[in-house]
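Hey, can you fold this one?
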Amino acid sequence: MSTNLTLQEKHPELFTESRDLQPRQRKRVVPMEVLSLGMARTGTASMQLALNILGFPCYHGITLIANLGDIEMWNAALDAKFFGTDDPFTREDWDLLLGNYGAVSDLPAVLFAEDLLRWYPDAKVVLVERDIERWFRSFDDGVIASIWNPVIRTIARLDSRFVGKLGSTSERWTAGWMEAHSKKEMQDKARGKCKEHYAMIKRVTPPGRLLIFKLEDGWEPLCSFLEKPIPNVEFPRVNESAALAEKIRLIARRGIRNAMVAYFKLVVPMIVLAIGLWAFRSDILLGWGHTS
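Sure. Predicted structure:
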């Protein structure tokens, strides 16, 4: 991603008003054709851009930022899958949630790999692999560190409208899929969970539907697999570590702003009321407004 771009150009979802539209009012308008099921921190943002370029509108974790109304359904899906506290998701539910998208990438979608494979049997699967130790360092520095960052967690409690909503989804998959309730526990389990995820994808996906892909291979194998012509642009490569760190700072800044606005909306009327009461009491005590 070019360093010459402005923050708004690099992170447009954070500079637009989040849509709180309820996905249960949608319907599928494009077919689900590609499931990019590599784990977060394996180039999921690059894959999202690549699939968008190829004509497959792709749902990524960052899509949630501009579509806060989706969080209710994602949380229901996570509750059903990992905690048994909601009804299991059907094909109709997935069509409502993902109806505007022809592809998925990144968390939380990849945690529903088996479900999506079952409900979209014609969709092709792309699995981006990365050396496990390099992946863990990136996942630890980016994802785990942000989830357990005490400042971010405090902002989430103060800003229930934005950061708190995003955090509610992360908390569910951390406890549900990772079965982790602390930073140390998440770090200890991450490698094993990642290996299990990749083994499961390879086990349940028919060979003809699966492409094991490395980003450095570029357009040719991906386009051949998806039966698309090679675009006349370079294969997108996002510096995900830098992009995520920058995005987290912007999310935190927005959360602080939201918390301050909420605080002033609460405090200012109380100050006005207190001044009014003081003036009223002073008027009585001093006899203002009364004739002698």
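The radius of gyration is 24 Å. Let me know if you want another pass with a different chain boundary.
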